[in-house]
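Tutorial, part two.
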Amino acid sequence: MQFNEEALKFLNLGISAEISAYVFYKHAAAVLQDKALKETILKIAGDEKEHFLSLEDVYDRNVRSEMWAPYKDILNKPGLPDIDELIQDTHKELLAKIRKIATKRDVLEMGLSLEKEAFELYSNASAKASHPEVRKVFDFLVGFERSHVELFEMELAAL
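Running the prediction step on this input gives:
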């Protein structure tokens, strides 16, 4: 089955966003002192890794491209991959800030902004997807990102 160009564009955007978010959260966890927050951030990093693997699988099954295979192999191993060249500008800016942050609120607000961005990306992709399988994948991710947004909002409200 062949996806249209727009579906492939959104799959690629999603793949890039999930790799970037994973790397961002792993970097963030490395500098955090708050144990509970660190665990939450690492759990979200794991979720982002799973999102990437799901998107990459859909892309690969429909395009049969080896383009992402090295990243899939890297992300299947424990530890932090050295793929910073794929980090989006938003994530690069936040990584620069995270090294200077002092409060839990700062980390939570950064995470919330990333999750809202991802929620919007997947909502738009789902609305524009004409292929049912693509829409199903993006709808699943919308739900996941919504839960991340709610988690960050809940943590912020508790401060």
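The chain has a mean pLDDT of 78. In part three we will examine how such features are distributed along the chain.
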